[in-house]
């Protein structure tokens, strides 16, 4: 129970792996039902939620995830991952239904409406963090017992329960390590570089290190 | 385009990694694609196989049709503009789709210049046959690259050639002493800094998908194993006998491209693939990959 898994079906998998490695956290990719065994936590990355949910269903990963969650595995969903975790998705059927909230897919418009800004999220870090929203969903409502971590105008951007973290933005697409450290602590793991909220060595091409030609 | 906007556009392509982008010609097909797990759709009037058959001038699709498709799905919508036709690109940007493909599948509007993509906020994907072509497009502002392959043929041979060529040239660059980069940049007509960046990163600095001739789950997995980041399927799905099953199967094979048992499973009971074309049977002036440079 000393590793965090990244669901490796489609989307921003390498970016999350890179950030966990920067923090010295043991990381595994999760592609088969058996890969869920002995994980302290799981990240469901950004990507396309329909694609990820279809593949999870077809290959029996849905039951394996639910079983691992019941035995204590924490889950963090970014962007598409947040959609998959919600109990309610505007205009369509919800998927994993693990956190009481309503989320609207693609809540801001087209790619031309994607944006970045900085905000301070006191529970996560004491300094302003860079936030990247790409065709992001909007959390329209959260249920009783769900703690709001960051609110925008008319929507919630980050929230959590004891076992689940959701962000509609992408910390893995910035140098921000604070959310990964925060999630690791939620999983009972210690990050080696506690003091660094934003890695100055990160840049837009950092993910390519994990996708070099072999 | 400001630097931040370009970064966001490259990052949208990163979120498509490991996924399949499907050509669709109407709302019904767009819904089938989304339901099958496509990560984006390419809205166009005719799939490349039909463009090839019909001949004539192929232009940007009717914006009303693209708008209909955009309304019907929640995944990203791409559409094609002719090479060099910056006004078609302006229209597509005004339509607020998610990505423009400056595509050799349409009849080029300019035989000398590609679109200056830095003037736009919307992201562009461009085709390339080799590293030099890929870097010229990136220098012009493309946020994503795809192989050209030979669209509308159902024959993967050209996509394989283009991917292998790119990989070979990247490996040469990796092994090259820095002082030889200047000559490489000059020969290939690419900025020195971009060539140096590829040498340092050991790959393209943006996402690189495979396109042009992919017709089966095995084709998709082949391109992924050759090092592509994801797959475009044009005529391959809706020119086959059972588009919904084939679309699902190609999504599965792309996600599990390293797992032969799962590719096998995905390949069973799909019915007829689209009819294929031998590249040597196509007259030289009908080959699409040679458009643009």
Could you characterize the architecture of this molecule?
The complex is a heterodimer of chains A (214) and B (293). Chain A has helices spanning 13-22, 49-58, 61-70, 80-85, 178-186; strands spanning 3-7, 26-30, 39-44, 74-78, 86-89, 99-104, 115-119, 129-133, 138-142, 147-152, 155-160, 164-167. Chain A has 214 residues and is an alpha/beta fold. Chain A has a single domain (3-213), classed as Class I glutamine amidotransferase (GATase) domain (Rossmann fold, 3-Layer(aba) Sandwich). In chain A, the strands form three sheets. In chain A, strands 2-1-3-4-12-11-10 form a seven-stranded mixed beta sheet. A three-stranded mixed beta sheet of chain A has the order 5-6-9. The radius of gyration of chain A is 16 Å and the shape is globular. Chain B has 293 residues and is an alpha/beta fold. Chain B has 13 helices and eight strands. Chain B has helices at residues 3-15, 27-36, 48-54, 63-72, 86-94, 131-139, 157-175, 181-188, 192-201, 217-225, 235-238, 243-255, 260-267, and strands at residues 20-24, 40-43, 77-82, 99-103, 124-128, 144-147, 207-210, 230-233. Chain B has an eight-stranded parallel β-barrel with strand order 1-2-3-4-5-6-7-8, surrounded by eight helices. In chain B, strand 7 (207-210), helix 10 (217-225) and strand 8 form a beta-alpha-beta unit. In chain B, helix 7 crosses helix 9, helix 10 packs parallel to helix 12 (243-255) and helix 12 packs antiparallel against helix 13 (260-267). Chains A and B meet through helix 1 and helix 2 of A and helix 1, helix 2, helix 7 and helix 12 of B.
């Amino acid at each position: 129970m000393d590793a965090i898994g990244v669901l490796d079906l489609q989307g921003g998998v390498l970016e999350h792996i890179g950030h966990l490695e920067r923090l010295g956290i043991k990381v595994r990719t999760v592609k088969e039902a058996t890969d869920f065994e002995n994980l302290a936590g799981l990240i469901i990355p950004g990507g396309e939620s329909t694609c990820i949910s279809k593949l999870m269903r077809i290959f029996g990963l849905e039951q394996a995830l639910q079983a691992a969650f019941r035995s204590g595995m924490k889950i963090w969903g970014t962007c598409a991952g947040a959609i998959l975790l919600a109990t309610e998705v505007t205009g369509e059927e919800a998927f994993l239904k693990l956190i009481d909230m309503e989320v609207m897919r693609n809540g801001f418009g087209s790619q031309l409406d994607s944006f970045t800004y900085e905000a301070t999220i006191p529970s996560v870090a004491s300094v302003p963090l860079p936030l990247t929203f790409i065709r992001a969903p909007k959390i329209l409502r959260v249920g009783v017992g769900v703690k709001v971590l960051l609110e925008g105008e008319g929507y919630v951007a980050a929230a959590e329960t004891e076992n689940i973290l959701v962000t509609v933005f992408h910390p893995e697409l910035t140098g921000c390590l604070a959310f990964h450290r925060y999630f690791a602590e939620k999983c009972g793991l210690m990050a080696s570089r506690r003091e660094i909220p934003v890695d100055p060595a990160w840049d837009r091409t950092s993910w390519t290190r994990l996708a070099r030609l072999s | 385009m400001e630097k931040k906007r370009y970064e966001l556009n490259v990052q949208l392509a990163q979120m498509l990694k490991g996924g399949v982008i499907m050509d669709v010609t109407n709302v019904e097909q767009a819904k089938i694609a989304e339901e099958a797990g496509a990560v984006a759709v390419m809205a166009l009037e005719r799939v490349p196989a039909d463009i090839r058959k019909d001949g004539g001038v192929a232009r940007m699709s009717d914006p009303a049709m693209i708008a209909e498709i955009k309304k019907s799905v929640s995944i990203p919508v791409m559409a094609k503009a002719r090479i060099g036709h910056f006004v078609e690109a302006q229209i597509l940007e005004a339509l607020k789709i998610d990505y423009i493909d400056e595509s050799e599948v349409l009849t080029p509007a300019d035989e000398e210049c590609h679109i200056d993509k830095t003037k736009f906020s919307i992201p562009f994907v461009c085709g390339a046959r080799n590293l030099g072509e890929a870097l010229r497009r990136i220098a012009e502002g493309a946020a994503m690259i795809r192989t050209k392959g030979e669209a509308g043929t159902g024959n993967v041979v050209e996509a394989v050639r283009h991917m292998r060529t790119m990989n070979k040239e990247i490996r040469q660059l990796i092994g090259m002493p820095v002082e030889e980069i200047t000559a490489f940049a000059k020969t290939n007509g690419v900025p020195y800094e971009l060539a140096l960046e590829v040498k340092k990163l050991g790959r393209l600095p943006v996402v690189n998908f495979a396109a042009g001739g992919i017709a089966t789950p095995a084709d998709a997995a082949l391109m992924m194993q050759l090092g592509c980041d994801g797959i475009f399927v044009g005529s391959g799905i809706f020119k086959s006998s059972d588009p919904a099953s084939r679309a699902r199967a190609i999504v599965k094979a792309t996600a599990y491209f390293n797992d032969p048992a799962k590719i096998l499973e995905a390949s069973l009971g799909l019915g007829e693939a689209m009819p294929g074309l031998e590249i040597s049977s196509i007259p030289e002036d009908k080959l699409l990959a040679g458009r643009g440079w």
